[in-house]
Amino acid sequence: MHWPLNSSATDSMENSNKKTGLYIHIPFCVKKCNYCAFLSFPADESPRAEYTDALINEIRMRSAGQEKIRLDTVYIGGGTPSVLDVSQLSRIIKAVRQYYDVAPEAEITLEANPGTLGKKDVVTRTKLIAYRSMGINRLSMGVQSMDNDRLHFMGRIHTPGDVARDMRLAREMGFDNINLDLIFSVPGENTEDALDDARRIIGLGPEHISCYSLQMEEGTPFYEMAERGDITEVPDEEDRETYHRICDLLKEAGYGHYEISNFALTGKRSQHNSLYWNMDDYIGCGLGASGFVYGTRYRNTADMKEYIDHYSILFDDEKCEDGGSTPYEEVHRNSPFDNISEAVFTGLRRAEGISFEDALRAYGIGYPGMDASEKFWMIFSDAETEARSYAENGFLIIDDTGLRLTEKGIDISNGIMSLFV
Ligand code: SF4
Question: Ligand 1: which atom is nearest the Cα of residue 78?
Fold first, then answer.
């Protein structure tokens, strides 16, 4: 059995052309959630202002020395970008439009957490109108749960009532493309609780739902609580059962399961995240942000002082002419094998899987006189026996055109993907 795809032919074609995206990281949050290992922290007004200036310089610098880069997607994530003042966000987006060629139909997403859009309806409406006027056409909200006690336990700052209100106001203000995140396998939660959360999130009618199993990441309060024995991780078997039952529920509600953790109504897949899974180019700006451009991966420093010091100098045009290499980043030039390996690794996350043709395109070296399957297995000759054994046992589908995980293969996806690394 393969994934319960519920997508139209148009959705499948969404993946066919190379695209370019821009990711902008805003590392600020109102407070740190108990499970969070993302690069985020609370900050006052002054660091936020300084960071905005530095970020705009980086946005400018990464565009310099070449023709305006056409952007198909812009994703402002974090952290919680909606903690920025409207004026700060507006300056950032203005800079993007000034230095890049943002496609008229570009998907422009803002992560806007419930509880950060203002307590009064009039304030929230004003913020949402401002977002719309900046061209933001997709919101992604970290709902995580619709149970008040669970939200509190996770350290979230909002209530289920805040979510319902923000959704209502976002709709009123014309947002017709909204993602809601759901976390399941929270300690103390059983499968029925998680399904109840999923039903309530479906009931809010978003176009897109992302579902993640809670991970106990080192350095988080939850990790320390688990170490002390104060909380217990949900057992794997229960976690997997919950995941599959949520998948079934979402499928019944009309959401296509197009990536391991992502579900969308027809035509509403995340264009930006699809760039990552398709090995398209993306520029990353901001603290700790990473990018993949012309076959090179880079990651910015995660040290705020280093970042601000470096990017707060006002670049003049001459300094920008080098096209933007900076000592405050790690850079790795992908080899052809890195490219094909990453294409398979990320491609297997998608319901369609990865075609041999696409994998070889990422490899970039021709294969005259051989068919794509033959050439693919020549490159991955060490992995073939094990991959075929996964296929015989119903975890992987291998045919003449490519490979993809089955539903039960998702549960051991890391093991299968690691064959191709
Ligand atoms: S809002 Fe998101 S990024 Fe911020 S602390 Fe919570 S989980 Fe982390």
Answer: 3
State what percent of residues in the chain have pLDDT above 70: 91
Q: In angstroms, rounded to a whole number, what is the distance separating the alpha carbons of residues 250 and 205?
A: 11
Of 31, 33, 117, the residue with max ligand 1 atoms within 8 A of its CB, to mutate for a pocket test, comes to 33
Query: Given 2.102.10.10, 3.90.1700.10, 1.20.140.10, 3.20.20.70, which CATH number is that of 9-277?
Result: 3.20.20.70
- CATH classification code of 336-420: 1.10.10.920
DSSP 358: H
384 CA from centroid of ligand 1 (Å) = 40
Dist CA 171 CA 34 (whole Å): 30
Q: Which among 153, 220, 164 is positioned nearest to 193, based on CA atoms?
A: 153
Read off the pLDDT of residues 201-213 as tens digits, 9 standing for 90 and up: 999 999 999 999 9
Dihedral (CA of 399, 404, 407, 410) sign? positive
**Residue 322, pLDDT score:** 46
- Tokens 């579900």 sit on residue: 263
Q: Where are the domains of the chain?
A: 9-277, 336-420
